[in-house]
């Protein structure tokens, strides 16, 4: 499946976001990525933006619109962690994570919404996490911000669902990345014991689900939470 639609992936310079951008490029989409530093993959337009800054988000969208055209598919992927137990978590540890992971999705989707309404077509895909609904000790800030994306997507679906616009959440589990690579061997083994699939996922497995949600095959799916977690979060 190929398309010349315009895609914007936030945080598309590394990890899952980069893999998503690469998948869209391979399928023939016009792809832009936001990054605070570094560059997106070959074939993408990289624009500088900190998603906690509405003016920066606006400027990034304007640049993409001028160079590629109106954004039709938004993948809100930019995220941060500041892990610590509740009793040690500072106001900033909480506020800064929520401002990026939830506030960033709000700013990006709000800026995109007028264009989606004008086109009477759109895909909003929010990248959450298995811990959003499963929970994770030391991640009250992160898990709160990621579970909030479910309410966001479902409210957006009720607002814009009749206009040819869908909003869905993808919830990756443990994915092979820089973060999992540095875990001690016994920790990795313990994590894998809890995952029915018995392994970590690959970034390409997340990217494949995101590209499918953007396709015409997924036109009647909205407000869904799609786990890509090897069965870890079942029932949550």
Automatic annotation (TrEMBL):
Oxidoreductase among keywords: yes
Span of domain Ketoreductase: 5-178
GO molecular function, one term: 3-oxoacyl-[acyl-carrier-protein] reductase (NADPH) activity
SMART domains for this protein: PKS_KR
EC numbers for this chain: 1.1.1.100
Gene3D superfamilies recorded: NAD(P)-binding Rossmann-like Domain
Keywords: Oxidoreductase
Keyword Oxidoreductase tagged: yes
Transmembrane segments: none
InterPro entries: KR_dom, NAD(P)-bd_dom_sf, SDR, SDR_fam
NCBIfam families xref list: PRK12826.1-2
Family classification: Belongs to the short-chain dehydrogenases/reductases (SDR) family.
Protein name: 3-oxoacyl-[acyl-carrier protein] reductase
Lineage: Bacteria, Bacillati, Actinomycetota, Actinomycetes, Micrococcales
């Amino acid at each position: 499946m190929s398309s010349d639609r315009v895609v914007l992936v936030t945080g598309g310079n590394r990890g899952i976001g980069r893999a998503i951008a690469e998948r869209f490029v391979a399928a023939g989409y016009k792809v832009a990525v936001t990054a605070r530093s570094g560059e997106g993959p070959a074939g993408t337009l990289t624009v500088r933006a900190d998603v906690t800054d509405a003016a920066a988000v606006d400027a990034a969208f304007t640049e993409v619109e001028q160079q590629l055209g109106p954004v039709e598919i938004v993948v809100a992927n930019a995220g941060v962690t500041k892990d610590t137990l509740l009793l040690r978590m500072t106001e900033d540890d909480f506020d800064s994570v929520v401002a990026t992971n939830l506030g960033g999705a709000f700013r990006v989707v709000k800026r995109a919404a007028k264009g989606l309404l004008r086109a009477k077509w759109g895909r909003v895909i929010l990248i959450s996490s298995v811990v959003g609904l499963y929970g994770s000790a030391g991640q009250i800030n992160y898990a709160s911000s990621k579970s909030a994306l479910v309410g966001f997507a479902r409210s957006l679906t009720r607002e814009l669902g009749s206009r040819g616009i869908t909003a869905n959440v993808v919830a990756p589990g443990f994915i092979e990345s820089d973060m999992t690579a540095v875990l001690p061997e016994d920790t990795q083994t313990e994590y894998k014991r809890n995952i029915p699939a018995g392994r970590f996922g690959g970034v390409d497995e997340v990217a494949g689900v995101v590209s499918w949600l953007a396709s015409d095959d997924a036109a009647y799916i909205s407000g869904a939470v799609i786990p890509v977690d090897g069965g870890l979060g079942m029932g949550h």
